[in-house]
Amino acid sequence: MEYPKVLTLGSYQTERALFGPVAVQEKVDGSQFRFWVNINGEIQYGSHHRQIHVGENYGMFKEAVEYLESIKEKIKLYSPYTYFFCEYLQKPKQNCLKYDHIPMNNLILFDAFLNNQWCSYHDLNNIAYNLSIELIPQFYFGETTVDKLRKYFDRESFLGGEKIEGVVVKNYKEDIMIGGKLRPTFVKMVRPEFKEQHSKEHKGHKKTLEEWMGEFKTEARWQKAVQALQEEGKIEVSPRDIGPLFVQIHKDISEEEKDNISHYLYRHFIGEIMRRSTAGLADWYKEQLLKRLEDGQKEIKS
Q1: At what angle do helices 258-277 and 242-256 cross, to 10 degrees?
Q2: pLDDT tens digits along 190-203
C-alpha cells in the first residue's frame, strides 16, 4: 500500500480540503519510509519509490531497516495489512533544511493504516511510543482557513534549528479520486521558498501560456528530483546524474501535475478554442445561402 498523494492546497481537486474538521501537522523535510505486516505476518519495508528487501543494500535507509529489524517481534504483534508511514532522517540535513538533531531511531511516524482504517492521532501516539520512534507534531484539529494555516510558518520545527517547512492538512472525511482509487484528501501548504511551482500574479493582463509554463521551473522541483534519485540509490554525484534528473523531473510533472495542467489549459484556453472553431462561420454560411438561391435548392447541400 502506497501513501495517498499529498496535493498542493489550491490545486485541482483540493477545493473541499478545508471543509469540516481537519488535522494540521508539521511537514518535515525528510524522506518517506514505510513498513508493514504482510499476510504471512512478515515485516516488509519500502521508500516512497521502491520496496526494500531484507538482506539487500539498504542504501540511505540502512539505519531505519536495521532498527526495525531489531524490534520486528513487536511489529509482528500488529495484525496483517497494518501499514506504518514515516519520515526518515539519516542526518540533520537530509534534504534542504538543517535541523539541530535527528529523530529518535531516525523515524517520525506521521500515519498508520490499521484494521482497514486510518489511525487517530491518539492511536499514532501509542504506536510511536510502543516502537520507540518519534511522532509528528499535530498543531491543531478542527476547522481552519488558509490564513490560519499561514500563521504556522513562523513556528520552529520540533527538531530545532529551522522554521517548519510547511504544514500537511489531513481531511479524512472528504474523498477524492486519485489513480482510479478513492483516497482521503491530504494536502500540503509550504513556505514560498519550498514551492514546486512559482505562482506569479500578472496584473492588468492574462497570463500567457509561456509565462505559465515557466512556473514549473523551480529549484524546489529540481531538489525533489535529486531527493527521489538519492532514495533509489541512483545518484553518483557526477555529471552523469543530469540525464536521470531530466527523466525524474519529467516523471514528477507527469504524475503530480497532470490534472492541474489539464484543468488549467481547459479553463484558460477553452474560450480561444471556441472562438477559433467558429472563425469564418458567418461568411461561410452566407455563401451557402447564396448558392442555395442560385441553384434553386430548398436545403443547404452537405
Answers
A1: 70
A2: 998 877 655 554 44
Crossing angle (nearest 10°) for helices 242-256 and 219-231? 110
Phi first, then psi: give them for residue 8, nearest 5 degrees: -80, 130
Look at the block and give the residue holding cell 462561420: 281
pLDDT at 296 over 80: no
Q: Assess whether pLDDT exceeds 80 at residue 20.
A: yes
Query: Residues 199, 253, 206, 11: is their CA dihedral positive or negative?
Result: negative
188 compared with 261, residue with greater pLDDT: 188
pLDDT > 70? residue 98: yes
Torsion of CA 278, 283, 289, 294, to 10 degrees: -140
d(CA 138, CA 168): 9
CB burial of residue 177 (10 Å; 0-12, 13-18, 19+): exposed
d(CA 6, CA 65): 24
